[in-house]
Amino acid sequence: MKGVVKYALGPDGVALMELPDPTPKEGECLVKVLAAGICASDIHAIKDERSVTMPVALGHEYIGQIVETCGDTGKLKAGDWVVSLPACYSCGSCRECRAGAVTLCRQRKSIGSHRNGAMANYVVVPAKYTWR
Ligand SMILES: [Zn+2]
Ligand SMILES: [Zn+2]
User: Fold this and answer.
1) Contact criterion met (CB below 8 Å) for 117 and 123
2) Quick one: which of 7, 24, 81, 91 has the most CB atoms within 10 Å?
3) HSE, side-chain direction, 13 A CA sphere, residue 49
4) CA dist 41 to 1, 21, 22, 51, 116, Å?
5) Could you list the residue range(s) of the whole structural domain that residue 35 is in?
6) 58 C-alpha vs ligand 1 centroid, how far in Å?
7) Which neighbouring-strand residues pair with 4?
């Protein structure tokens, strides 16, 4: 698949690149991205004003259609149109996570900054933080 990847520091450190096709793991959905918005966070990442784990496909504001699920994904199934919480990979055990405030987790890993995001043909997201 192709994705818009931040791969190096500097203004030329972002490009449309070939990426391996992602595979969902337990509790995750493979989503075909239908549209992805450009957030200020993406601009900050491109300008090196925000740290990201490179290389990473940018984008966390998207709508897509599930094409595959793995394991227990609740009610979500292939064909569903979905959106996800950007900071969808949190530690799950800190005080903030236990209180349900996963976006405040200090170890959160957002799609589009620490995991490949939605400016790509496909994105993998956890069902737990994905909604129809
Ligand atoms: Zn955003
Ligand atoms: Zn946490």
Assistant:
1) yes
2) 24
3) 7
4) 23, 24, 23, 10, 14
5) 2-131
6) 11
7) 16
- The CATH number assigned to the domain holding 45 equals 3.90.180.10
What is the per-residue pLDDT for 52?
A: 95
> How much distance in Å is there from the Cα of 97 to the middle of ligand 2?
4
User: Ligand 2 centroid to 102 CA: how many Å?
Assistant: 6
Query: What tokens appear for 92 in the block?
Result: 């799950």
Report how far apart, in Å, the C-alpha atoms of 97 and of each of 4, 13, 94 are: 30, 33, 5
Distance 23 CA to ligand 1 centre (A): 24
What stretches in the chain show pLDDT beneath 70?
none
Give me ligand 2 centre to Cα 34, in Å.
30
**What pLDDT, on a 0 to 100 scale, did the predictor assign at position 88?**
84
Q: For the chain, what is the mean pLDDT?
A: 95
The DSSP H or E segment spanning 66 is strand 61-69
pLDDT at 94: 96
Q: Tell me how many domains the chain contains.
A: 1
pLDDT in tens, 26-57: 999 999 999 999 999 999 999 999 999 999 99
